[in-house]
Amino acid sequence: MVAVDVGGTKIRAGSVIDGVLDHLREVPTPAAAGARAILDSIAEVVRGVISDTDVSTVGGPTPAWKVGIGSAGVIDPESGTVVSATDSLSGWAGTALTSEITERLGVETRAVNDVHAHALGEALSGAACGTRSSLLVAAGTGIGGGFITDNRLLTGRQAAAGHIGHVPVAAAQGLPCPCGGQGHLEAIASGPAVLSAYRRAIGERSPGGPQVTTTRELAEVARSGDPSAKRTFEQAGRALGTALGGVANVLSPEVIVIGGGLSGAGELWWIPLREAFAAELIPAVRGLPLRPAQLGQDAALIGAASLWSTGRGSGRDTISSDTYGTTMTTGEEPQ
Amino acid sequence: MVAVDVGGTKIRAGSVIDGVLDHLREVPTPAAAGARAILDSIAEVVRGVISDTDVSTVGGPTPAWKVGIGSAGVIDPESGTVVSATDSLSGWAGTALTSEITERLGVETRAVNDVHAHALGEALSGAACGTRSSLLVAAGTGIGGGFITDNRLLTGRQAAAGHIGHVPVAAAQGLPCPCGGQGHLEAIASGPAVLSAYRRAIGERSPGGPQVTTTRELAEVARSGDPSAKRTFEQAGRALGTALGGVANVLSPEVIVIGGGLSGAGELWWIPLREAFAAELIPAVRGLPLRPAQLGQDAALIGAASLWSTGRGSGRDTISSDTYGTTMTTGEEPQ
C-alpha cells in the first residue's frame, strides 16, 4: 500500500509492503493554491511511489494498491472528509479527501488526522511499541495528541479527540490561542509561542538582540547561554509538563511519547517538562514514563499504513481504529 | 446477581435480575474498623439481598448468584484488589476485595472503582444512554470521573484513570490538594473545598456568620442571598467548567454527565460551570452537551451489575469493561 503524510509545508509518501517503508517521495504542499491543487499533488506523489515500487519489484506480483493518508486538519476517518482545518491549508476544510483520491487514482483510500497517524505509528513500532495504551504528543507549530487505549485510537466525537494544545494552563492565562480562545497550552508552549515569548523578552531588553526565526535557532541561542531564550524554553516545557500531568491523571496511559519539533530542543526543554509533569502526578499514576518519539517523520506514514493492515488470526494483540476495526499486530500476547 | 456500592459512609446493595434493580439494602460502612470489618459488612448485606430475593421469587428458579462491586478506592478490575484508598476507609488499600468476598459467600465476584461503576451505569441506562462515548464526572467529597469510549470503560494503567479532580487549574494555584500535590481542581471545587473557601471568606468578614457543615446547607445560604456563599459556588463551578473544557478538547466525548453531591447545588453552580466550560471548547468540540446525571445513587449499582451482564449475540451494541470483555446491550445498532 501507499502511505501519505499531508502537512502544511510538504506531502510525503512511501510504499509499505510487508511492514517495510520504502520508495519515499516528497513534494511541497501547494498550501495556498486550494484543495484541488493539494489533492492533485497527493495523487501525483502516490503515482510516483507506485511507479517506483512496480519498477523495483520486477518479477514479483503487482501489489493491490491501497492508500492510507495522515493529513493536517480534523479528519473524520469514517467519511474520509476534512471536518475542519486551519488557514495554513487553503480551502482544505470540507474536502472529501478519500473519495477525491479514489476518483483520481482508482484505489481505495482511508485517512486520519496526521497526529493520530503519528500516534498509531509510535504505538505500532516506535516508542510505545508493546504497550496497550499510550498518549503521543506532538509539540511543534501546534500541540496535538493521539491517545491509544486497549490498542485502539481514540478519534472522539467529530474526530476531534487529542487537542492537547487546548488544555487551559495557568502560565498561559490571558494569552490568545490560535483556536480563538485564550489561556490554552498552545498559547505558551507551541513553537510560534516560544518564538513570540522570546521576541517579547528581547524587545523589552534589547531591540538589537539576536534575530531568530525558528525554534531550532532559538535553542542554539539558549544553549549558548542567552537567559531569555533559556527562560522561554523552560516556560514552554514547564507548561507542557503541567498540562500533561493533569491529562495523565485522567487517562493513566502506560507511556506518554513526545515528538514534534520542540522535542529536539534538548535538555533545556526536557528537564522542566519532566519536573513539572512529575509534580502533578497523583500517587496512583506516579512513575508514568515520558519518552521521546522514535520514528521521526516516518511515524505518520507507518500509522497511515496501519489503517489498511489486518492482523486477524495472527494470535497476537491488535491495534484497531475506532471506526474501521482494522487490526495490526503488536508484540504483545493477548490476555 | 447482587450489585454492591461500597462508599465511605454506607454500603448499599440490591439484586439485579433481568435488568431490574430491587431488594435494596443499606448498612453503615464500618470505615474506621479496618478491611475485615468492611468485608464482613459487604458479605452480610449481600446475604440479606439474596435472602430477600429468594423469598420473593417463591416458585421461580434460584438465580445463580454473582456479585458485582463498585467500591471507593482505586480498584484493579483484573485482580479485584484495592490498589490504593484514602484514609476514609481504614486499611482498605491492599485488600483482595473480590477473593475475600468469594471466600465469604462462595460466589464469583468482580469489582471496579465506584465512580467507574457510576459511569457504566449512566452510560448503560442513564444520562449517557445511547452514546458510544461519555465522561461521567462525580463532584462531591472528591471529584472523580469515568470515561467510556467505543462503549468501553477506560480503566487505565494501574486502574487509575478518571482522576479529573487532579487536573491543574489556575484558580487553585497554591492551594493544597488531598493527593499531596497542589493547585488541582479538587483543591477548589470539591465539597470540602467549597466549605473551606466559604469559611475563609466568612472568617475574614464576620467571625459570627452562619455555621454550615454541608454543601447542601451552604447552597441554601447562597440561595438566600449570601454573597460569599454564592461566590464560593461560582468559583467552584467555574473551576470545574474550565478543567472539563480542557478535558473535552482532549477526549471529545459525545456527552459529559455531571453527578455527585454538588450537582444538586442548583443554578448558582451550574451556570458558571456551563459558561466556563463553553469558553474553553475549540470549534471542533463546540456544542458538546453537559447533562445532569439521572440515576442518582443507583448508577453505581447498575454499573457494578454490568460487570457480569452479557449481551453477546443480541445484535446490538455493547459496553465492555477493558479487562473482562463483558458486554451489555445499549440502545444503539452496531455500525
Automatic annotation (TrEMBL), chains A, B:
Pfam families per UniProt: ROK
The organism's place on the tree of life at top rank: Bacteria
Family annotation (SUPFAM superfamilies): Actin-like ATPase domain
Region annotation Disordered: where it falls in the sequence: 311-335
UniProt cross-references to Gene3D superfamilies, sorted A to Z: 3.30.420.40
Similarity remark: Belongs to the ROK (NagC/XylR) family.
Name assigned to this protein: ROK family protein
